[in-house]
TrEMBL record:
Organism: Roseibium album
Family membership: Belongs to the peptidase U62 family.
InterPro entries reported in the protein's UniProt record: Metalloprtase-TldD/E_C (IPR045569), Metalloprtase-TldD/E_cen_dom (IPR045570), Metalloprtase-TldD/E_N (IPR002510), PmbA (IPR047657), TldD/PmbA_N (IPR035068), TldD/PmbA_sf (IPR036059)
Superkingdom as given in the UniProt entry: Bacteria
Domain Metalloprotease TldD/E central: 120-224
Gene Ontology biological process terms in this record: proteolysis
Protein name (database record): Peptidase PmbA
Limits of the Metalloprotease TldD/E N-terminal domain: 29-91
Domain Metalloprotease TldD/E C-terminal: 232-446
GO molecular function: metallopeptidase activity
CC per GO annotation: cytosol
Length: 447
């Protein structure tokens, strides 16, 4: 399968751009060349509804003239010199950025780690259709499911090359396989829908299509006839799928760019306890077959496993070169290519599990709300104020009583982090991995 992407040609493109930029007058520069092929099939009611195949190439040249920078992109590299001259001319009239520049040479990756990023299995449209149809069939066989909302399967292969004017050349290839199914339960105005999905680097790690479909169907059926709740303060438990959003709010708040701009509610909390004792959150760029695993970051910088939260205490920001310079710190290999430059961010981040199962969390809480779905984006990154629409299940005496919907839960992330209790059911499949989590005493706005 890897023959579909010529890494040597990608590398040649990037190196030629770097050489052309130096000839055009750039003090320093880097070039990223990416290419990919993807195939996706959607089915509905036993028939293929859409098949989409995409192939693409892109090169981006970033140049520095003093502390001025500019970037240009192209789909084809017919004339590297012309592209480089345009980038340098743009940089010369750009405003100065005191934090612009390539990564320091001593921070660059010297030896590429061996990582499981590429599965050699190539997928055909027929094979993907069979997977999607199997998932849909299994979902429709669940008692109470009235129709399919569709199912899909996909495959993607990508290649990435980074070359810099101070001697770094690195490349890697990745594969990704995925499937999903949406089931509809009930009839008329009483219909409810839910879904299940899986996405992996290696095909063999995917859950069985029938399992995806069955879970989607069961999730839809258990949402039938939702009730409304009155306004109250209650214990809230997030299923692991919903709990990933909590981790996302944390990663945004400890992003070095947000800290430098002073737009994070955690900007002054480095070295302080922001979670309860015992809470561990780890970011691992080398996680086996991880969704964000990579041998080097967007600047070619070496990375290491970071314990972002250790025993509840905030230990690190996510830093690329620019944010690190602005904060007077060293970058930690968390640069992501973003348009014409880089931005810092997480790789494979995991909230480590606790000792209590989901059932035990519910039993200890006694009564409360089990959140299965979140709606909206009501989070203020500056203050930490939190307000999200949710759907899920009300439980009493540790047992689910009824499905509920049209509810808003609210709080402040500072308080929510301190009261967060992780369960033992870690879902480790994705780049943001969490178990279920319980947060006591949240405000619930109902009818």
């Amino acid at each position: 399968m890897s023959e579909m992407i010529d890494q040597s040609e990608l590398q040649s493109r990037a190196v030629r751009l770097v050489e052309a930029a130096r000839k055009a007058g750039a003090d320093s520069c880097d070039a990223v060349a990416v290419t990919g092929v993807s195939l996706a099939v959607d089915v509905r009611e036993g028939k293929v509804e859409e098949t989409e195949r995409a192939e693409g190439d892109d090169v981006t040249l970033r140049v520095f003239v003093g502390k001025r920078t500019a970037a240009v992109s192209a789909n084809q590299l017919d004339d590297p010199g012309a592209l480089a001259e345009r980038a340098v001319a743009m940089a010369r009239v750009a405003p100065e950025d005191p934090y612009a520049g390539l990564a320091d040479e001593h921070l660059l990756v010297k030896n590429m780690p061996g990582l499981e990023l590429l599965d050699s299995r190539e997928m055909t449209a027929d094979a993907l259709a069979d997977i999607a149809l199997e998932a849909e069939t299994a979902g429709l066989e669940v008692a109470g499911v009235s129709k399919s909302g569709g199912a899909g399967a996909s495959w993607r292969l990508a290649g990435v090359v980074l070359a810099t004017s101070h001697g770094f050349e690195g490349s890697y290839m990745t594969s990704r396989y995925g499937m999903s199914m949406t089931a509809v339960a009930g009839e008329g105005t009483s219909m409810e829908r839910d879904y299940d999905f899986d996405s992996r680097t290696y095909f063999e790690d995917l859950d069985a299509p029938a399992e995806i479909g069955r879970r989607a169907g069961e999730r839809a059926v258990r949402r039938l006839n939702p009730q409304k709740l009155s306004t109250r303060t209650t214990n809230v438990i997030y299923e692991s799928r919903a709990a990933r959003s909590i981790l996302g709010h944390l990663t945004g708040a400890i992003n070095g760019a947000s800290i430098a701009r002073k737009t994070s509610f955690l900007k002054d909390r480095m070295g302080e306890a922001i979670f309860a004792p015992g809470i561990q959150i780890v970011d691992d760029p080398f996680k086996r077959r991880g969704g964000a695993t990579r041998p080097f970051d967007g600047e070619g910088t070496a990375a290491s496993v970071l314990h972002m939260i250790e025993d509840g205490i905030l230990q690190h920001w996510f830093l690329d070169g620019a944010s690190a310079r602005e904060l007077g710190l060293d970058p930690n290999g968390r640069a992501h290519r973003s348009g014409s430059g880089t931005s810092p961010g997480a790789t494979n981040i995991t909230l480590m599990p606790g000792e209590l199962s989901l059932d035990t969390l519910m039993a200890e809480a006694g009564s409360g709300l089990l959140v299965s779905d979140l709606i909206g984006h009501g989070v203020n990154g500056i203050t930490g104020d939190y307000s999200r629409g949710v759907a899920g299940f009300w439980f009493e005496n540790g047992e689910i009583v009824e499905p509920v919907s049209e509810i808003t839960i609210a709080g402040n992330l500072n308080d929510m982090f301190r009261r967060l209790v992780p369960g033992s059911d870690l879902d480790n499949r994705y780049s943001a991995a969490t178990p279920s989590v319980m947060i006591e005493g949240m405000a619930l706005a109902g009818s």
